[in-house]
Amino acid sequence: MVEQKHFFGGYALSEEFKINNLDSSEFIKNLEDDLSNNENVILKKNFSIVGVHDHSYLLGLENLEVLESEDHSSIRNRLWRIRTKHLILATGAIERPLVFAGNDIPGVILSSAANEFYKLYGISQGDRVILITNNDSAYSAVVELFNAGISIPLVIDVREKSVGELPLKVKDLGIRVEFGKAITKVLGKKRVKAVEICSVVGEGSVLETIICDSVLMSGGWTSTLNLWSHCGGKIKWDNQLNTLVPDETKQSTNELGQSFISVVGSAKGQFWPSELFDNMETVIKNICEIFNLKKIKYEKYQIKEIIHEKTSPISCVPESADENLKGKSFVDYQNDVKLTDLRIATQEGYESVEHLKRYTTLGMATDQGKLSNINGIKILSNLVGKEINEVGTTTFRPPYTPISLGSIAGEARKELFKPIRKTPMHKWHQENGAIWEPVGDWQRPYTYLRNNETKEEAVYREVKNTRNSLGILDASTLGKIIVSGNDAGEFLDLIYTNMMSTLKPGRCRYGLMCNENGFLFDDGVVARLNEKTFLCHTTTGGSDRVYSWMEEWHQTEWWDKKVFIQNLTEEYAQITIAGPKARLLLEKLGGLNVESKKFQPLDFIEGKLGNFEVRVFRISFSGELSFEIATPSANGEALWIRCLELGSELGITSYGTEALHIMRAEKGFIMIGDETDGTVIPQDLNLDWAISKKKKDFIGKRAHERTYMQDPNRKTLVGLSLKDSIQKIPDGAYALKSGGNGAEDVLGHITSTYFSPSLDKPIAMALLKNGKSLKGQEVDIPLESGNKLRAIVVDPQFYDIEGKRQNV
Amino acid sequence: MLKFICPICEIETDETELTPGGEAHLKRMGPGSSDQNFYTYLFERKNPRGIHFERWLHSYGCGKWFHVARCTKTMEVFGTYSAQEIKPPKKILDAIKKKLPNGKNVK
């Protein structure tokens, strides 16, 4: 049981009635004591249910600021996620203002607010207080204030008469009550000074001016049904009760299609305690049925309450106020929407309540129309001459009351916002000058800074050192997925564009993966560990995606294939040893025969390298003689350090992702995410050789057969060489026909661009329309400065085209 | 927030544990299929206001795909079943029929 305020009882504490001969406040106190002694009940104050969502999911906001100082807690708000079986709304009602000129001047206040301020906090609104009302309930505030010794010069009742108990009591107290009257306008600027009194009917000719310093107003009560309708429950206007009521024929339903909300009390338009208690009996009976409970004995309460006369439907006064008065009559206090604004909106044709709202911003402030909406709708219905139910209401949406973003975001901030994945060698990188680059969820060294190097100098040093002697790279972030089982080969034939089932155990093959649209989305080297088992390497960012992709196809399309799939990315550390002296280092580590005749490109071997259990792949992404060593993660750091120790006399250098990128670009190797963007097929990248012609089917094959995929004008991968410039081509720049200008001359865009330390000149790759036909031609690269670079279209391989360096 | 019973774990799962996967019971169109059939398979998805058969992945749970029969308007769930069912099981179809006896979808 939750209560938004810091006390239970709501308005029942302000408005007195008797239950079983007890004062309402005393009765509520007893009830609270009973409930708090019940272990089965959680009572919460300062707690709002702010949203009712699908499948009876509630969001609650607990405000802990009140407790903060006591508990020395730094938590201000706590968000509660609640699944309820049933929800009983006793959300009450909110008093409406009346609309008259000057109703925004400080000192004008709702009668219920004034009453509560006085009764609960001992605060009085002023010394000479006037009330304007269209109902009986507001009189109770006057009685309270009068008894407290406050002067009440006048009560204005817009109704023709009322013989309710409260108005009679007020008269008996000797207070002047005027029926059929209204306020022309409130005088004063920063504070109420006086009010001008007029007749309700007519244009507001002033009959009398009364000095006062505060005006209480009451325009009746609106049931609070926001939570009822968040999840689809409908509401309707009740002319008799002058409030919204829940439309019981259109309720919110849960996952079983059953209604799960009951409304009681004034939220249902049952403003009298006796009605509430009668209704509770029905609600309890209903809940017993839903939960198959035995009937609970329902105690009858003796209630003594004040009988009220009917509320008037009048919401703005005087009836025929002129433009001058209307221009000062506020409907929405927060967004300053006045009567004249509503008139103009309908005049402009915004007659639908949804249009009116957006045109005037009525009900769009932080209170979301809790005060203003009903008055606005009543005025609209008068302006367009329709019933309120025809005009309709706007939709209530969560949250019921504004909540802090922090309560929703919770702990998801700073380092907990997104966890960082670290390789086993992370600490070493950190201690050796690594500049980090985020790749997927990983942190990878971009380069390692030494002494006073710039980033650029460090990268060039790493490339040159690797090409001239020896480099070492942490490749642990590569995805590693095991596919195993009798049908593993057959399954991978469907996943990859290449034929994987013919791969021999002990060998590796570079493979491509497309989606059903035919677009390339991941690549990597596949090793066949044994007859039934394949190890699929994926890109760093792609490991989880590829793993889920394989699982999805296995579970939902080819579940007859006998395979299991396991993502072992974090189980292995992987170290790349690249450069002319790579073999020397492996020999120094010892234990494996890595002679070129025994251990050929695309072979892998397993065994012990020094003391380390390893699997060594002879694969090269740099174009150098290169070995990738995989070892269980726990040994990763030790093996890395061992390699550096033994490699020091060979001139080893650790290199980062930028050196890796440069070396692969020098070789014309593609990078997923640079050369591909989700619209590129392997054929665009001259990778036809990796697409099996023999296979009947693989994911993407059907798409490659579409006419658009075979259009010779598709953008294809080319290299660009700069004519007379050492300036790097900007990333993502356009390439235009030579001498061209404007969109029709655009041939394509740059996908990768670097200054090549190995060739001592800039290189780039680009996707250009019908790229193959452009070989040898010149293209223009417009720069931001307005100048152009002139480039020549070449093959996208720049360095060691014959591959002599890696095949030694 | 929706909740479904994962038919593999047989526990109630919150939407935050799950990943939606769109329409269920699609027939894959591979090589040899007509352009129209392939186009329909790739792009044309049902998006009804009413009963929908859809795929969900218990991504922060058992990692298995399963199917749900759900009304997209009222969020009523008529049952969950294995992703390896070619058609919705009779039990679920009966539950839907009971709710919508004239066979028409929810208005």
Indicate the CATH class of chain B: Alpha Beta
Q: Helical residue percent of chain A?
A: 10-25%
Indicate the structural class of chain B.
alpha+beta
**CATH homology-level superfamily of the largest domain in chain A:** FAD/NAD(P)-binding domain
Which whole number gives the mean pLDDT of chain A? 94
Overall pLDDT level of chain B: 93
Keywords:
heterodimer; A: 808 residues; alpha+beta; FAD/NAD(P)-binding domain; Gyrase A, domain 2; six-stranded mixed sheet; 21 helices; 27% strand; B: 107 residues; Folate-binding fold; four-stranded antiparallel sheet; two-stranded antiparallel ribbon; 2 helices
How is this structure best summarized?
By secondary structure, chain A is an alpha+beta fold. Chain A has five domains: 10-93 and 223-304, no CATH class; 95-221 and 310-391, FAD/NAD(P)-binding domain (3-Layer(bba) Sandwich); 426-477 and 571-663, 2-Layer Sandwich (Gyrase A, domain 2); 479-570, 2-Layer Sandwich (Alpha-Beta Plaits), CATH 3.30.70; 712-808, Elongation Factor Tu (Ef-tu), domain 3 (Beta Barrel), CATH 2.40.30.110. In chain A, helix 3 packs parallel to helix 4 and helix 4 runs parallel beside helix 5.
Strand-helix topology:
The complex is a heterodimer of chains A (808) and B (107).
Chain A: E1 18-19, E2 22-23, H1 24-36, E3 47-53, E4 57-63, H2 65-71, E5 77-83, E6 87-89, E7 93-95, E8 108-110, H3 111-121, E9 128-133, H4 139-147, E10 151-157, H5 165-172, E11 177-179, E12 181-187, E13 194-199, E14 208-211, E15 214-218, E16 221-223, H6 226-229, E17 235-238, E18 243-246, E19 261-263, H7 273-290, E20 303-304, H8 323-326, E21 330-332, E22 337-338, H9 339-347, H10 353-360, H11 373-384, H12 388-391, H13 405-409, H14 426-431, E23 434-439, E24 442-448, H15 455-468, E25 470-474, E26 479-484, H16 488-495, E27 508-514, E28 520-530, E29 533-538, H17 543-556, E30 564-567, E31 572-578, H18 582-589, E32 604-609, E33 612-617, E34 626-632, H19 633-647, E35 652-654, H20 657-667, H21 701-704, E36 715-722, E37 734-737, E38 746-756, E39 761-769, E40 778-782, E41 788-794
Parallel strand pairs in A: 6-19, 8-15, 9-10, 9-15, 10-11, 25-35
Antiparallel strand pairs in A: 1-2, 1-20, 3-4, 4-5, 7-16, 12-13, 13-14, 17-18, 21-22, 23-24, 25-31, 26-29, 26-30, 27-28, 28-29, 31-34, 32-33, 33-34, 36-39, 36-41, 37-38, 37-40, 38-39, 40-41
Helix pairs in contact in A: 3-4, 4-5, 9-11, 15-20
Chain B: E1 3-6, E2 11-14, E3 19-23, H1 35-43, E4 51-57, E5 65-71, E6 77-82, H2 90-99
Antiparallel strand pairs in B: 1-2, 3-4, 4-5, 5-6
